[in-house]
Design goal:
CATH class of the largest domain in chain B: Mainly Alpha
Oligomer: heterodimer
Largest sheet of chain A: 2 strands, antiparallel
Structural class of chain B: mainly alpha
Helix content of chain B: over 70%
Strand content of chain B: under 5%
Distance between the termini of chain A: 47 Å
Helix content of chain A: over 70%
Number of strands of chain B: 0
Largest interface: A-B, 120 and 108 residues
Number of helices of chain A: 15
CATH topology of the largest domain in chain B: MetI-like fold
CATH superfamily of the domain at 94-290 in chain A: MetI-like
Structural class of chain A: mainly alpha
Shape of chain A: globular
Shape of chain B: globular
Radius of gyration of chain B: 25 Å
Number of helices of chain B: 15
Largest sheet of chain B: none
CATH architecture of the domain at 94-290 in chain A: Orthogonal Bundle
CATH superfamily of the largest domain in chain B: MetI-like
Distance between the termini of chain B: 30 Å
Order of helices and strands of chain B: HHHHHHHHHHHHHHH
């Protein structure tokens, strides 16, 4: 941004090079200038891309293939030896890492259908023309997304904590004991936090897609005698399928990095252990067990799974789109 | 609209539906009830936070949440900013610094790159853009540990830069900026400016960046939220409490609360204050995030 010039020069711009000269100016000079501009504009981002994306990933891959062997007490005398895929085998044979993916799978099984169907239903309702104060409703539903994840987790954790929670107190008055942090309820409780944050956000995405639908299509369905519900399910939903796939994909990728909520839950209930999800496993391996080789291998595996998943979903969506035509 | 009959409900805009008389009214009532319930679900936890921030530790655990017998909001606020030598204020400033400055610089970088991707041709352009898209798909959590390893290699761990530099990287912003640039900045404008003999960068700063203004705000908002929410990276990078952002600070106070309950009211009111800037940003800049959402998803 060093080329900023003073605003006063604006008017003189045309004067310095006569307007007609622009057309006849040798093309090569323009080319060179364009190349220069392009490089300047791209350079900062490319530097970041290399420094905080490519280099760290490469370094993690490298580190996962080596291991530091500490002899004796391990003070300074560590030697780095090539261990190949040993760290990967160790990670993949670790039941606590594999069970983390199990937790994620279960979480997705609950979260993805609930958030997609919920958000879609709300968006279709907003689009149906039956709702009063549409803009206000939309805004109110969206607000939780502006609440940082850790704070959403704190709020809900306190609403789950016996003694603090007015919800539990309310149920207790009706003689119902409810335990949000029990063995079987803790995962739905985590899903609920994510649902609270994501419902309105995804609804807005669907609603925007619905608003972009050609009105003639809806009108045609209506003339054919399709009711509101049938129009919604058989006409509107298939057309915005792309958005639905998109939301599913981001929900899945988001689920794979599940960290904040369970990390906070970990402080409150023994049902969430310190290696509950793959991300927590990585943190635990690196900072509680100081095993960087293991943590790097786990990071690389998580990276590969994430990329494979998003690639598969986009490919699948692309094929569906083509075959629909 | 010509075929609809005179059910009271059908008077509104493009309401689909057959003339069903009563059922039109019923479905309207059901639909509105569903929306109201959903709104209550999203709002009540926030309301609880608001009410709970007026309670002291005892009242938080004991009494009815709706009773105002004990109103300790000011007391809680004073405690919040004096606890541990006012470290909360420090966290707040840190968060503002990481998020506002980081999002501003980051958006400048992303928008410039997105614009270059849209307006210029260069070798391997689409390959490079594919790399950007890969960056979008890779969650920041996965990168946190590798980043820590690199940062510790060059001695940056536990410094301001360890958090500030990585958050500048925003491939989604580049993707968004490329879309917005092709939408907002017509190629003819560039041509005209070239004919006028203006330099390329000069054109970018004076003409294109101005046309990209709304797009810039959109990218900025998205990045602001992402950085404000950032938790894993600071947790991995920082051990000095004075460098913590709010998210990490509140997390540590929450773990203290499990041992000493006097921290509970502080976490509650601290959370409330931490939410305010983002809510304000979203309510005042609504139209920007909406254009970002649609550009990012419908496409």
């Amino acid at each position: 941004m060093s080329t900023v010039i003073s605003p006063g020069k604006t008017r003189k711009r045309a004067g310095t090079t006569p307007r007609t000269a622009g057309r006849t100016r040798p093309r090569r000079a323009g080319r060179r200038q364009q190349t220069l501009a392009c490089v300047t504009l791209l350079a900062p981002f490319t530097a970041l891309l290399v420094a905080v994306f490519l280099v760290p990933v490469g370094y993690a891959i490298g580190l996962s293939l080596f291991s530091e062997d500490h002899k004796g007490l391990g003070f300074g005398g560590g030697t780095t030896v090539f261990t190949g895929l040993r760290s990967y085998l160790a990670v993949l044979n670790d039941p606590s890492f594999v069970s983390g993916f199990g937790v994620i799978a279960l979480y997705c099984l609950i979260f993805v259908p609930v958030v997609v169907i919920g958000a879609l239903a709300l968006a279709l309702l907003l689009d149906s023309g039956l709702i009063r104060l549409r803009r206000t409703a939309q805004m109110l539903l969206y607000v939780p997304h502006a609440v940082p994840g850790i704070i959403a987790a704190v709020i809900w954790l306190y609403l789950y904590t016996p003694g603090l929670s007015p919800v539990i107190r309310l149920f207790a008055q009706a003689d119902i004991t409810i335990d949000f942090l029990g063995l079987h309820s803790v995962l739905p409780s985590i899903v609920n936090i994510a649902l609270w944050s994501g419902l309105g956000y995804n609804m807005v995405i669907f609603y925007a897609a619905l608003q972009a639908l050609p009105r003639e299509v809806i009108e045609a369905a209506r003339i054919d005698g399709a009711g509101g519900l049938r129009t919604a399910l058989l006409v509107k939903v298939p057309i915005i399928k792309g958005s639905v796939v998109m939301v599913c994909m981001f929900a899945l990728i988001g689920a794979l990095q599940l960290f904040t909520e369970p990390m906070l839950m970990n402080q409150a209930t023994p049902m969430v252990n310190s290696r509950f999800t793959p991300s927590m496993y990585i943190y635990d391996a690196a900072f509680r067990r100081n095993n960087y080789g293991l943590a790097s291998a786990a990071s690389v595996i998580l990276l590969i799974v994430t990329c494979a998943l998003s690639y598969a979903v986009t490919r699948w969506a692309g094929r569906r789109e083509r075959s629909a035509r | 609209m010509t075929t609809t009959t005179a059910t009271p409900a059908s008077t509104s805009g493009r309401r689909p539906g057959r003339p069903l008389g009563n059922s039109g009214l019923t479905s309207r009532a059901v639909a509105n009830t569903v929306i109201v319930l959903a709104a209550l679900y999203t709002l009540l936890p926030g309301l609880w936070l608001l009410l709970a921030s007026t309670k002291n530790a005892d009242a938080l655990f004991g009494s009815d949440i709706l009773s105002f017998g004990d109103f300790s909001l000011w007391h809680n606020l004073r405690d919040l900013f004096t606890m541990e030598d006012g470290v909360y204020g420090r966290w707040y400033l840190n968060s503002l610094l990481y998020a506002v400055v980081g999002a501003f610089v980051g958006s400048l970088i992303s928008v410039a790159a997105g614009y270059a991707f849209d307006k210029y041709e260069f070798p391997h352009k689409e390959k490079l853009f594919g790399l950007v898209l890969t960056g979008v798909m890779v969650p920041p959590t996965v990168l946190a540990l590798p980043l820590y390893l690199v940062a510790s290699g060059i001695g940056l761990v536990n410094t301001f830069w360890a958090v500030f530099i990585p958050v500048l990287f925003n491939p989604f912003g580049v993707y968004l900026a490329r879309l917005l640039s092709s939408g907002y900045v017509p190629n003819e404008v560039l041509e005209a400016s070239r004919v006028d003999g203006a330099g390329e960068l000069q054109t970018y700063i004076r003409v294109s960046l101005r046309m990209l203004g709304p797009g810039f705000v959109t990218v900025f908002l998205f990045q602001l939220t992402a950085i404000w929410n950032n938790f894993f990276l600071p947790m991995v990078m920082l051990s000095d409490q004075h460098l913590y952002p709010l998210s990490l600070g509140l997390y540590t106070w929450n773990s203290s609360a499990t041992v000493s309950p006097e921290y509970y009211p502080l976490v509650v009111i601290g959370s409330l204050l931490a939410v305010v800037p983002l809510i304000v940003a979203f309510l005042t800049l609504q139209r920007y995030w909406k254009s970002g959402l649609t550009a990012g998803s419908v496409k």
